[in-house]
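Below is how a single chain appears once it has passed through the pipeline. First comes the sequence as given, then the structure the pipeline wrote out for it. We keep one example in the README because the format questions we get most often are answered faster by looking than by reading.
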Amino acid sequence: MIYRKLGKSGLEVSAIGLGSWEMAGNVWGNADEANSIRTIHEAVECGINLLDTAASYGGGRAETVVGKALKGIRKGDSVHQMRSESAAEQRRRIQPHA
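Resulting structure:
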């Protein structure tokens, strides 16, 4: 796996990340939670340490699934979770008094 520095954070992240939107099941139909957790475990075994998730993915369901999967990850493995802001969070950051 190829790893790159993430901006100025000093974190080394895999060049390939895993998105979790489809794991929420809202747009894509029913998502199988056990299969989603297996997918995350397999990705980590392959060297992927960059996971993308957001509160808007299934109203937080994807974040819950990712959290359950990460509980099963061996200590010492480094997994970085990138959390996207919701549109409301972005508006509050840009216009904090809105």
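The two ends are 43 Å apart (CA to CA).

See the next section for the split statistics.
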